[in-house]
Hints:
Helix content is 53%, strand content 17%. By secondary structure, it is of the alpha+beta class.
Amino acid sequence: MKDLNSLMKQAQVMQQRMAEAQEKIAALEAEGTSGGGMVRLTLKGTGELARVVFDESLMAPGEGEVVADLVVAAHADAKRRLDEQQAELMREAAGPLAGLNIPGMPKF
Length: 108
């Protein structure tokens, strides 16, 4: 019975840590770049696009397709960075239970 009580206490602590991690994730920002920095964009922890910055040289007529490709690449870069930050926060929150395949718990 002691083991069950101990496990329940650990689960409660982890639940609190996960809630705190979710708050931290919402506050995260990740910047992605492409074209050697010609396009920079920022994603919030929620995945919302917060900012896009274009190099002035991309504003020339006929550069639309290049700009579109660079935006997609910058978004992919920012998303990858954001995913890494989020996974690290979740691993920290899970503590000793990280990596266990517990039903109902997110995998990271």
